[in-house]
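Two proteins, back to back. First:
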Amino acid sequence: MNEDLTDDIDLSKDTLVDAVRHELAEQIDEDQLDNLGEEDIQNIVQESMERSIEELALHTYERILSDDEGLERYHETIEGFQEILEDRWGEPLELLERLIVWSMECGRAINQDHGFQARRNENYRFQALVHLHSRSVQVALEIHHLLKGGFADGAFARWRSLYELSITSSFISNHGDETAERFLSYHNIWEYYFAETYREHQDNLNVEPLEPEVLEELEEMKDELVKQFGKSIDDNGYGSGWAAEAHTGNGGPSLHSMKEEVDLEHLTPYYKLACESVHAGSKGTLDRLGIIRHEDIEQPDVLLSGPSNGGLNLPGQLTAISLAQVTTALLMMHLNSPSLADMLGMQMLVDDIEQGFAEASEALEQDDRKATKEWANQDIVDISLNCIDPSDLFSKPFLKKHTEFDSLPEFRDALPVDLDDVKNGDSVDPETDEVVQADSEFDSFQDLVDTALESWVHRNVDLSEFDIDDN
């Protein structure tokens, strides 16, 4: 146990304090206490803390592993959410899936028809494009899976990869065999520099050390590629040296310069946003696609730690666009009537996908705006009933003090409706008010909730933090 860590624990609030006291009581009796120095006592406290924390950790670990009910509740919640998401986004998600399968079948067919001959004739452009296409289909399937799960930000982050694949495919398609061959060979350059980094950190990683002859072999392969393609291919493993000779802009090749050359720079704003879904910056942390915001309406502060029904439209639309671009680059290798039909038909489907996601998003936006307005217009009774757990709002001391009921279950049983179904204090049925009038000091259910909320505030809010002017 790290000594600094245990030193930072606040014993006045920590749940371990009783366990530590018990440990100390077993180790130190009153007769021994006078003979112990300050350092001895500190050591005993430290050891007791460590044992108690380890025991608590083991207990917590075992409790989590045995909590089947908690896991089942989570699964039930997710199943219910999936049904809602399917109702909202099912149609455009199905269209996107059809596009992905169509693209997969196109890639499989063209590879079966021309793959062997392309390898035999050293048609590097075909080989590079078919590899890029197969990877793009897989990424698109990953995105689709994330969208079906309600993870818009994760899907957006994966689209970033698909966008880069579309740029690379278009660039190689434009520049032919030599650039494609450099692309296919470049991975050996990258592996050499990765091996250097691996060797630098292998002791701290506690992994199998890299044998010197492995690095020597990789360096020889790198040097052979430099001899074959020129020094420009060796970019210290940054990833784009393969494009150096074909690159026409100033400076070395980069994703930015390549996307301009292949006319895909118009998607740059979305790419920058997608990068924020990958990185740990402020923008990507605070602004999540899965959180729907209405700037003109007061909203609750939401921290998104799971799936959401919002934000699926942008990654869904962009995935369709980028996958179609990669597939088109491959189909262009062998133009004929079927491939032209595939390209034109895919564009029709992409248009349908864009429209489907846009319509679903607009409907969700309108429904969420309505729900948010209703939330913002809640009175204090609505907020109490909707946002505070009944057992906390109607505590046992409160019920005993103000009503004839000794517990929340008794109060629930006396009401003519389920307490969970009462969401608006202004529309409570008369029979509920009659129960309150007969069994409490209040004239209405709303009065009871108002007083319960006041009691809850005094229990849970430190009013001393507020500077209140008595005047």
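And the second protein:
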Amino acid sequence: MELLRNAVRPYAWGSRTTIAELLGRPVPAPHPEAELWMGAHPGDPSHVGDRSLLEIVDADPIGQLGPDCAAQWGNRLPFLLKILAADEALSLQAHPSAEQAKEGYEREEAQGIPRDAKNRNYPDPTAKPELVCALTEFHALAGFRDPHRTVRLLRQLETPGMKAYTDLLAGQPDSNGLRALFTTWITLPQTALDTLLPEMLDACVLHVKEHGEFDQECRTILELGEAHEGDAGVLAALLLNRVALAPGEAIFLPAGNLHTYLHGTAVEILANSDNILRGGLTPKHVDVPELLRVLDFTCADMPVLSGTAVDTGHWRYPTDALEFELSRLEWAPDESHEGLLASCGPQIVICTAGGVVLQAEGKKVELGRGQSAWLAACDPDARVTPVPGARAQVFRATAGG
């Protein structure tokens, strides 16, 4: 049971205040800070003292991960925990299944594409499911909306240039129709986009002025259109569910789910992988054929997870991901009940509000807001209690299964 020192990733879409304030540093930060990473990712592993968590796991995978986890994941910590702070939209993206990642990785290895090449889709052979749990109000686009509702949206935005595309989906309002429309839009030549997008954005402006049914969706499209002029991903965003999460609510993004995070702060847990297929809203590489190969065009409302209560002040967010599970523990200012962190393999715990004390067989670790700890599989069960006088909250990451 050891304190972690974690890396901050400075992506352009990040916040200059959120992570700095969480860590007790001067605000605003000198540049955007997007993600705080906790784990043993080779690109930016956490540290325990002078050693990286990656080195610690590599030196003793059985003791740190447990025999079952080590065997299942090739002596790798299978998850990465993050604090994500988005002030602007991320790229439109999806992640492959385990089978797709393995096949894609082997194919690109055989082609001799360097793993750090800009056109590399699969730098590793593993899946990348993820779950995001809101710390503040958190907004996202995720999964394809029911096509009947999308047809209603497109009819209200219909322009001379849009009519044919609306008719395409109206004639086949199912996953196959969505695939056909998405494929058509994502492959439009730039000259066509330069005509179609301004028409559609003007229609969105009118819809917002008239307080139409799809006000929030249109506001989002206008924001994306302003930030990503001429980008086909703005059209693709018309097809996705717009999700607003309250603190404590979460969404799970399985393989093939097209999504982007728009704005807000959240805890994110994901498989320890870098495999991303982008679909727009970015200057980075977009491999349309490969994206279409992995996308899941199943269409429905995006399920919002509130957490399953397992004890007083303790909620789990179960998914079918084998790599991870996230849980949340909370205490009101006048509560002092004890939480149990049962030894069940590798664990990372981060304090996101107030302060807590971890205790196990005479050892004690105090976590203030923004601090995190590593609990190895060989560590005993730990008890967690709040520091009196303030609301306290911790998130706990464990391996799935």
